[in-house]
Specification:
heterodimer, A: mainly alpha, 2 domains, 4 helices, B: mainly alpha, two-stranded antiparallel ribbon
Chain lengths: 172, 498
Amino acid sequence: MRQHAPATHSPRLQLLVGLGVVVLALGLGLGAYSIPSQAGYAGVGPNFLPWVVSLALLACGVRLVYKASRGGFPDMEDHSGDHPDWVGFAWLSAGLLLNAALITVIGFVFSCALCFVLVARGMRLAQGQPVAWRVSLSMDVLVGLLIAAPVYWAFTKFLGISLPGLTQTGWL
Amino acid sequence: MDVWNLLLQGFATAGTPVNLLWAFVGCALGTAVGVLPGIGPATAVAMLLPITSQVEATASMIFFAGIYYGAMYGGSTTSILLNTPGETASMVTAMEGNKMAKSGRAGAALATAAIGSFVAGSIATVLVTLFAPVVAEFAVKLGPPEYFMLMVLAFTTVSAVLGKSTVRGLTALFIGLALGLVGMDQITGQVRYAAGVPELLDGVEIVLVAVGLFAVAEAMHAVMFEGKVIDTENRLTRVTMTVSDWKRSIPAWLRGTAIGAPFGCIPAGGTEIPTFLSYAAEKKLAKGANKDEFGTRGAIEGVAGPEAANNATVTAAMIPLLTLGIPTSNTTAILLGAFQNYGIQPGPQLFSSSASLVWALIASLYIGNVMLLVLNLPLVGLWVKLLKVPKPQLYAGIMIFATVGAYGMRQSAFDLFLLYGIGILGLIMRRFNFPTAPVLVGMILGPLAEAQMRNAISIGEGSALIFLQRPMSLSILVVVLLILIVPRVLKWHTERLR
């Protein structure tokens, strides 16, 4: 069974989310201010919707802050564990960001295999698996390559979608 | 030409070996995606959207529809066998399905889910065949003011009706609208919110947002909060139904279909409401020993009804998508994105301008249902093996496909960084119970709604009163206001009575 920890979404975190929405709304409002109106026949120009969205988000943000300061939302659900595993998250982030940085340098296959290894590592750490890391690492490298390479070939060779390669051959 | 001829032509197009193969691959992939936790139909279709640049429109729409459909069948397998609710649609199935599986009746639950999905899907496809052309004919008469109001209606229902909190739904909707604003304005060409980044001039890709919000955010959530969660699996038994199972299932399927189909037709978003309604109806109608099975040993009606309602809703959702161009769920929003990639705008004209595409798509729904019944009844044991994939490799593998989807669309590494950012957004939304469907619907429908609004006001010679002067747009506006006001008044009223 899924083990649900008791709900302890602190109102303080909810307050931060609400404030985040307010800041976002103010940023969007600032952006809307810089858009010229050029209304033309329509009477409303390209800056109309940005204003509507900024103001509406501001209202939502204020409401969220208000609710959070009054003890937060009572009906939060889906609490599976309350202590975020930051180590696992760091590995996952490293995998995704390195992939983004390296994909055009070392090619899709290697970059994605690296991402696979890092993400799998993060998940294993989060699970607290007592696996010898050398075994799991070599397994992950192998499986990562075995997924990334066929995916690369399928998309570049059969579907004609260009993905970056290390060489110009289209195979690696 | 009458509907019958058009449909036959559709079957001729969809029945070519190549298109049948696309349908089959779509259905198989969809089932796999439905079975695998952590990836749903919306994500799968989004990741594969780049193929629209190469594959011909009819083939890829058949393929996507197969995934969309297949995932519904696969989802029920997971929710019955695994004690982890997947997406909301299968949550209701899990309630009784899990209980049945625990008392050794997993096979019967799977059978009634698959056959019920088939029955409901087929009936709803007939409804699509019969009603979509009628709705399209009616929709031709709608002008920009009516369209704008319909889109506002879709925004309202998807954000305010679904979920527990209107504020959170609306916040999600406006974040989606804001994402849709990025890039060049359709009418004047004015650049908005691009922050000087050349990649943002073309706007944010829908693939990116969908994959980020679902796949990446899901992986982040899993790694941060679900590492220690242990999933248990129920034993699979022979997939058969007894005579009494049939007797109890058939009426439940039909009632489920009757409840689900209307919900798909209106822009009311999602399968949550119809599946819950169907469950409640079955529980209420059950008598004697059958009634006692609800919540204890697991009642077969509680699986049959909601499953049928789910599939009927999902299928009928094709009607507003094809005839009005209005998506009512995550997946239909992405299907709309797929149409847009081909330069096709779903709407009433679709039935005249792209008739062969539409009818091939509808025909493929019939074909797909039959394929899925075969894929899911005798072969269910095969799919169940997918549940054995360990989580680290599963999520890591999903990230590879996420990369393909996000990068393949525009060949830009910038998009991969943006994908990470959207993933963080999705993680926060998930953690604090913000619904995600409004983001996607807002993002896709936002620019269209803006264009309709500005056209409408142009027609009104600069006056917004045009929305009140046309009877049709006025009545939709009234409906929107009722949806927003009535639940609040009722709540206030019941609170006062206490």
